[in-house]
């Protein structure tokens, strides 16, 4: 699950440029040509988002839920939060 979003974005980008180029060559109404450009821009955004999401998801999986309560299984981002929970909920 690393590359698909990035690949999808590139595919949409290329499809958008292709659509725009095709419509341009056919001399079709300018508003419809903008649709092709919009599709290309959307593809670029998806590709950029996919590239960023890769980094974010890696950071999220390593950063969140590191400390799990042994009593009830609740997850916390820091040891301090876990200790506070243990004290409050389980009286330890
Ligand atoms: Zn607990």
Spatial arrangement of strands, main beta sheet: 1-2
Give the total of beta strands. Answer: 2
Query: Can you give the mean pLDDT?
Result: 78
Hetero groups bound? zinc ion
Strand content: under 5%
Helix content: over 70%
Count of discrete structural domains: 1
Number of helices: 3
Q: Termini, distance in Å? A: 41 Å
Overall SS class: mainly alpha
> What is the approximate shape?
rod-shaped
Secondary-structure blueprint:
Layout (H helix, E strand, L loop, with lengths): L3 H22 L4 H34 L3 E2 L6 E2 L2 H12 L2
Antiparallel strand pairs: 1-2
Helix pairs in contact: 1-2
The protein binds zinc ion.
Structural description of this entry:
A hairpin with a 6-residue loop joins β1 (67-68) and β2. The protein is rod-shaped. The longest helix is centred in the middle third of the chain and has 34 residues, at 30-63. The chain has three helices and two strands, in the order ααββα. The model has no long low-confidence stretch (mean pLDDT 78). A two-stranded antiparallel sheet has the order 1-2. With 92 residues, the protein is mainly α. It has one domain (4-90). Zinc ion binds at residues 69, 71-72, 74, 85, 89-90.
């Amino acid at each position: 699950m690393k590359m698909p979003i990035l690949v999808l974005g590139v595919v949409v980008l290329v499809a958008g440029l292709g659509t725009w180029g095709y419509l341009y060559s056919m001399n079709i109404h300018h508003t419809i040509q903008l649709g092709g450009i919009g599709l290309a821009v959307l593809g670029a955004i998806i590709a950029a988002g996919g590239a960023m999401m890769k980094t974010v998801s890696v950071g999220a999986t390593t950063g969140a839920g590191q400390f799990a309560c042994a009593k009830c299984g609740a997850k916390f981002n820091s040891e301090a939060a876990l200790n506070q929970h243990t004290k409050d909920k389980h009286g330890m």
